[in-house]
Amino acid sequence: MKSLVEKLWVSAYLRQIARVGGTRLGHADLHREQARYEARGLSWGRDEGFAKTLATTVLASASALENEYGCDRAEAVAVVQKALRAVGRRLTYGMTRAWLWSRRDPFGDLEKVSPLDWMRRMWGNALKAEQHCSEGRIELTVTDCAFRDYFWQAGRSDLTPVLCSFDAMWHDVINHAKRGMIADQMAAMGEGARTCRFTYSRVLQMAESAHGKPLSNQRNLL
Length: 222
Description:
The protein is of the alpha+beta class. It has one domain (about 1-220). It has helices spanning about 1-20, 25-40, 50-65, 75-100, 105-115, 115-125, 145-155, 160-175, 215-220; strands at about 125-135, 135-145, 180-185, 195-200. Helix 4 (about 75-100) runs parallel beside helix 8. The longest helix has 30 residues, at about 75-100. This is L-2-amino-thiazoline-4-carboxylic acid hydrolase. GO terms for molecular function: hydrolase activity.
C-alpha cells in the first residue's frame, strides 16, 4: 500500500512539474538521473520509505530539468519548489485543518501525542530530534537531517530549503486557524543553522523567544 501511495505521489509531482515548468519530465528521466547519482556512489543510507522517495525524486527532477531541459540551477530549484508546494498543499492543508477542528483542545492533544512522535511516524529515522516540554510550550530541535546530508553529498545543498518549506505549509494552517495554539520555526538547517528548532505554544504563552525572532515572522519560507 505504501509503495502505491509513493508511486501516486511521484506521478502527481511530475504533473505539477509539467504545469509549472512547461516540460514533459517523466519517470524515465527520474530513473536515469537516479541511476547516474547511484553510479557516483550516492546512497540514501537510511530506512526505505517516503523520505527516500521524496529526497531522491527532488534531486533527480532538479538534475533532469538542468541536464535534459536546459534550465539553469536557480530556475530548476524554483520549479521543483513550486511543484512540491502545489502537490503537497491540498494534503497538508486538509489533514492539518481536519486535526485542528476535530479536537476540542489541539494543543492539549499535541502534548499527549507529541511532535516528536509525529515526526518519527512520518519520517522514520530520516530525522533525529530532541523534545523539551514546559507549561504551555513544546520545543522540538532536529539535530540530524538525512535530507540535508543527502543533498550535501550530491553537491546540491540548495535543495535543502525546498524541503524546509513543508514545515511552513502546515505551520501556516495552525497559525491562521486560531485554535488556541501557534507554531513557529526558530531556526532551519536549510538557512545555515546547525539545527532546526520549532516551538508549539498555547496562544496565551506567545511571548517571543529571547533567543531570536521566529523565522516565520521574518519572511515567508515558501
